[in-house]
């Protein structure tokens, strides 16, 4: 009797696993995951409408003006925004950024430019306001937090107690919880284990083949099959675009970085060599398995500090056309897939041709972002397995070549801009490592230089020595501030004197003369400190 029950339950599971494995290793799909995702999205939108209605009712009950018997017209529902949008309007920050980037070119009447003092005074309030905006919400910290969703996806990790709004949402959430943990998670763990075993077997077989071309072919097809099985362990829905632009023989591929499973997503369509620091534990096991059949670059922690040694090994790999194209994530850290931060210039100094890849995740069914400061790798994998699904769009961009006279930094910015435009991401110039370290002095100096260039464009300060001016400004910043009047004596000086009215033309001439004297004082101060 017991064996009959076990066989009745076991056979459908075995048939399901076999079907999934056959479809994954052949790269086929029956469309079930896509239809399942569409149905879930419709359910989430219905749940969001219930949550919005409940919120509107609470707001009406809390409003004392609406507690009477008067009839209130229904208010239109407000749209909720994802965390990719700011919680404040960064008007002054954007305005100063446009000014520093020469996007707002001022127009002058004739050849007359405004005085230096006038421009500085006009910019001061905007700079202070931009600083306050950054204190409220800066552009760096918010990129290392999970993206908030437009509609609740029935996961308590992304909810604000929505499951307690009414009994329908509670039942829906509880049913989803049972389905994910009792059906999806066991199935995904089995698939993940089969993928690990298949990876070990494929690399072991490939390492025993003496012929280079045959070993390379076995490794390529084996890796594609194993990583596709891995992707099914997360119910991944991956859409590849412009596959004709894929790197085939050698070269450097760069992509924006959101998660450690980015490489799993990309390896479902192409084989790549990897570069990174040698790890221990489970990641170390994967690194050793991969290195048995193909050439990957793993460096020790002590060697990571030696930039020249790592660059040399990378250059040797790129120069060999028989090796796999190497995949690099130049940001150096995981971003929440709303933006792309500064690319490190190292990989752009080595190869003249870069194959850019843009990756954009749909976080409605599961957020792929890894917050390494709060989650370990095992916890992150478990959270992904307990999510509904993983949806990602991958765009292969045309190869980009470094132009004559173009620096590695400018080349990196150009590639990053192309990735942002294709993936619909925000292009940020900030270094992603700022989440772990303080702002370096060179970034402060760079902002000061940009503002000096703005003064050079918009005022008559261009003929002064910029180095002397910066030295003078630094000297002034270290001096203590003096009160404009003495509290006991000068505070009330002149309070009994009546104002003498002047004609408008006379006041304008006096203001112009005073501004010219201010410019002369600034320029003379610069000449004093000029070496």
Automatic annotation (TrEMBL):
Residues 57-83, 479-531 are annotated as: Disordered. Residues 479-500, 508-524 have a biased composition (Basic and acidic residues). InterPro entries: LPCAT1-like (IPR045252), Plipid/glycerol_acylTrfase (IPR002123). Belongs to the 1-acyl-sn-glycerol-3-phosphate acyltransferase family. It is found in: Membrane. Keywords: Acyltransferase, Lipid biosynthesis, Lipid metabolism, Membrane, Phospholipid biosynthesis, Phospholipid metabolism, Transferase, Transmembrane, Transmembrane helix. The chain crosses the membrane at residues 6-25, 189-209. It holds the Pfam family Acyltransferase. Pathway: Phospholipid metabolism; Lipid metabolism. Its main location: membrane. One of its GO terms (molecular function) is glycerol-3-phosphate O-acyltransferase activity. One of its GO terms (biological process) is triglyceride biosynthetic process. One of its GO terms (cellular component) is endoplasmic reticulum. Residues 251-362 form the Phospholipid/glycerol acyltransferase domain. This is Phospholipid/glycerol acyltransferase domain-containing protein. It comes from Steinernema hermaphroditum.
